[in-house]
Specification:
- This protein is 50% helix and 12% strand.
- It is globular and about 60 Å long.
- It folds into two domains: 70 residues, Winged helix-like DNA-binding domain superfamily/Winged helix DNA-binding domain (Arc Repressor Mutant, subunit A), CATH 1.10.10; 189 residues, 3-Layer(aba) Sandwich (Rossmann fold).
- It is of the alpha/beta class.
- The two termini are 21 Å apart.
Amino acid sequence: MARELVREGVAEQITRQIRDSIQAGRLRHGQALPSTRQMADEWGVSAKTINAALAPLITEGLVISRDRAGRTVHAPDQQDAPAVLKPERPQVVLAGGYAGSGKTEFGRMVVRETGWGMFDKDTTTRAVVEAALEALGQPGSDRESPTYLNVIRPAEYKALMAGMVENVECSASVVVTAPFLRELSDRAWLDRAKAQCDDLGAQLNVVWVACDAESMRSYIKRRDARRDDWKLANWDSYLASINLDFRPDFPHIVVDNSLGYGRSLRDQVKDLISSIVRAE
């Protein structure tokens, strides 16, 4: 997939991120948005920029603005359970990417389109991981120390994949989202994962959610999670430790979630689902 990056203004970036949050179900139908001033403070921009960012969403009907009532999310289709897409064999969508790439939003959109199950690493394991780290004398936000990397992380990913297997054993398709940085760099691990899916009668679909550095930093700052503190405080060192051109050494699909990419995340989700259906 060719990268067609264009320069987006700050207002356009905010528009895209709010739209993605609505389409991923993070902002719910009927939910009141913060005031213009509150949003300006949250995003670190002017009230004029917030008004410019919300204008397209109001035009699209995703946000409703009423005098004295403020702005609310308008996405009534969120209240409808998606029709479950039932391929001939269970599908496993394994989506990896760096922190702030948008892989969880991607996974949520796939689920909203297909009705499949979803296992996100942070949602599934974070509470247990933080308790385990604190019991071992580490901060719960630690994701950099040998204690996390060598003791906690292997168990975390083992639990995540066990959840995938349990879904497939019940003939259910599932989306699994996590960084998968070690795993997608290890051809032997990927071959084992494919063999495991084959043995279960499932199809493995590997997705890499790509994102440029500026966009990742914007997403990470926006989610305001303690586990990202080190990255944000040492941003240049963090960037030097990763390879933004990385791609798995395995058949895969690239989804580009850079803020300047020409196609929306939702459109790329629909492309992925169409490719899975065609391959059946």
